[in-house]
Write a structure and sequence with these properties.
The chain is mainly alpha-helical. It has a single domain, classed as Orthogonal Bundle (Hydantoin permease). It has 14 helices and four strands. α1 packs antiparallel against α8, α2 packs antiparallel against α9 and α4 runs antiparallel to α10.
C-alpha cells in the first residue's frame, strides 16, 4: 500500500498524506459538530469566574472580541486547504502541518508540527484528568446525599482514569477522523446539555434572589497589580475556550465537494462561533448574575444543595460523555500524523501497511491494522499514566496553551494568507494583518505571564 507525498526539487519529502483515497461525505453540520465538540468543553463552566474578574462590561465584550478574532483567523486558514497550482504540490492539505510546509517552508512546518502535536497530546492528558474529576464529583455527591455531609467520602481518581483509558483504547481504533462523525454529534449534544443546565440553574437562582449579582468593574482586588493578574488569567481562560485551528484542516478534509470546501468550512465556522458565543455569553453572564463576586471556578460546584444534586450529577455525566468524543477529535489528527510517517518510512512493512477485516459476532466488520492497534493503545496508555502521575497537569496545559496561542491561532494563518495572496507590503490589507498578528502576540504574552503567576501563587499558597 503506497504513500502519496509532495517532494521538493531535491526530492525532500514535504508532507505525508493518507495512504489511500478517502471518501469525503462531510457537510456543514458534521463540521459544526466537530468544531463544537472540540471547542465547547468543560471550560465553559469556568467562564462565569472569568466574567466576574472582568465585570459586566469588559467580560461580555472580551468574549465577543475573542470570538471575532477566532472567526477571522479561521477564515484565513480555510482558504489555504486547496493548492493554487497543480505543480506546487498535492491538491489538498489534510493537516495544519501540510499547509504550513507547502506554503511557508519546512522550518515553519517543524515549529507548527511541534506546537500542534504538543497541544493535541496535552489536551489528551487534560481530558483524562477532567473526566476523573467529574466522575469523582458524581461519586462524592451520591455518597454525601446517602450518608450525610459528615461522611468520609474519599474516592481515588486513578480508578476513573483507568476506566476512561480503557474506553478510549476501544474508541481509538476508529480508523480516522472521517469515521467519528457520530461521536462528534453525540459529544456536541452533551456539551449543549450541560451548558444549558448550568445556565438554567443560574437563572433559577437569580430569580429566587430577585436581583442579579455583580458589578461593572468585577471583583475588587487587594491592589491594582493583583487585579491585573486576575484580568490576565480571565482573558487566558476565555481565549483558550475558542480556537480550533489545530484541528481545522482535518475537519475541512472531511467535507464533500462541491460546493468548494472553503465555502462550506466558512459557513460551519461562522455557525459554530455564533452558537458557542451565545452559549458562552449565556452561561458566563447567568453564572455571574447568580453568584457575583463569589462565582466559583466551576459553575456546577456552586449548586451543592440536595435540591439540585441529581441535575448537577446528570450534567457531570454529560461532561464525561462529551470528553469521550473530545479525546478522539484531538487524538485522531495526531494518530494520522504518526501513522502516515511510519508508512512513508517503511512502505514495504506488512506490520505497518497491511489492513485486515475483522468480523466479531454481533458486530459489524471493521478494519484492523497492527501499527494502529499498537501505537494508539500505547498513546492512550501514556496519556492515562501521565494523568495519574501529574494530576495537576491542567495548570501546565494553560501555560502550553498560552505559548501556542499566538503562533497557531494568529501568526501562521496570517503568514499563510499573505503567502497565498501575494499581498504587497505596506498596503492597507498588509498593515491590518500585521497589526492583527502583533496584537495577538502581545495578548498571548500577557495571558502567558498571568498563567505562570497563577501556578506560582497557587503552589506557594
Amino acid at each position: 500500500m503506497g504513500v502519496a507525498e509532495a517532494v521538493s526539487s531535491d526530492n525532500t519529502p514535504l508532507l505525508l498524506t493518507p495512504p489511500h483515497p478517502l471518501k469525503r461525505t462531510g457537510t456543514v453540520w458534521t463540521a459544526v459538530a466537530h468544531i463544537v465538540t472540540g471547542v465547547i468543553g468543560s471550560g465553559v463552566l469556568s467562564l462565569p469566574w472569568s466574567i466576574a474578574q472582568l465585570g459586566w462590561l469588559a467580560g461580555p465584550f472580551s468574549i465577543l472580541i475573542i470570538a471575532s478574532c477566532t472567526l477571522f483567523s479561521a477564515f484565513l486558514l480555510c482558504d489555504t486547504y486547496r493548492s493554487p497550482d497543480p505543480e506546487y504540490g498535492p491538491d489538498r492539505s489534510a493537516s495544519y502541518l501540510d499547509v504550513v510546509n507547502l506554503n511557508i517552508g519546512v522550518k515553519n512546518g517543524w515549529l507548527c508540527g511541534l506546537l500542534v502535536n504538543i497541544c493535541l497530546y496535552g489536551f489528551g492528558v487534560a481530558f483524562v484528568i477532567t473526566t476523573a474529576i467529574n466522575l469523582r464529583a458524581i461519586q462524592n455527591s451520591i455518597c454525601y446525599h446517602n450518608e450525610g455531609p459528615e461522611a468520609a467520602c474519599e474516592f481515588v481518581d486513578a480508578y476513573y482514569m483507568l476506566l476512561f483509558g480503557a474506553v478510549q483504547i476501544v474508541l481509538s481504533q476508529i480508523p480516522n477522523f472521517h469515521n467519528i462523525e457520530w461521536l462528534s454529534v453525540l459529544a456536541a449534544t452533551m456539551s449543549f446539555t450541560y451548558s444549558f443546565i448550568g445556565m438554567g440553574l443560574s437563572i433559577m437562582q437569580t430569580i429566587e434572589k430577585g436581583h442579579a449579582e455583580g458589578s461593572i468593574e468585577g471583583v475588587i482586588a487587594s491592589s491594582g497589580t493583583e487585579k491585573l493578574w486576575l484580568v490576565s488569567q480571565a482573558l487566558g481562560d476565555i481565549s483558550f475556550t475558542y480556537p480550533f485551528s489545530t484541528i481545522l484542516m482535518e475537519i475541512q478534509d472531511t467535507l464533500k465537494s462541491p460546493p468548494p470546501e472553503n465555502q462550506t468550512m466558512k459557513k460551519a465556522s461562522t455557525i459554530s462561533v455564533i452558537v458557542t458565543t451565545f452559549i458562552y455569553l449565556g452561561c458566563g453572564c447567568a453564572g455571574y448574575a447568580a453568584f457575583g463576586n463569589d462565582t466559583p471556578g466551576n459553575l456546577l460546584t456552586g449548586f451543592g444543595s440536595s435540591k439540585f444534586v441529581w441535575i448537577v450529577n446528570f450534567a457531570n455525566v454529560c461532561i464525561v460523555v462529551h470528553l469521550l468524543g473530545s479525546y478522539q477529535v484531538y487524538g485522531q489528527p495526531l494518530f494520522a500524523t504518526v501513522e502516515n510517517w511510519f508508512r512513508f518510512k517503511f512502505p514495504d512493512s506488512e506490520f505497518v501497511n497491511n489492513t485486515f477485516i475483522l468480523k466479531l459476532w454481533l458486530l459489524p466488520p471493521f478494519e484492523l491494522n497492527f501499527l494502529s492497534l499498537s501505537f494508539r493503545t500505547a498513546y492512550v496508555v501514556s496519556t492515562t499514566v501521565i494523568a495519574m502521575i501529574f494530576p495537576y497537569f491542567n495548570q501546565i496545559l494553560g501555560v502550553l496553551g498560552s505559548i501556542s496561542f499566538w503562533p497557531l491561532t494568529i501568526y501562521f494563518p496570517v503568514e499563510l494568507y499573505l503567502s497565498r495572496s501575494s499581498t504587497d507590503a505596506w498596503t492597507a490589507k498588509w498593515i491590518m494583518l500585521r497589526t492583527f498578528s502583533i496584537f495577538g502576540f502581545g495578548f498571548g504574552l500577557f495571558t502567558l505571564i498571568g498563567c505562570i503567576r497563577g501556578i506560582v501563587t497557587e503552589k506557594i499558597g
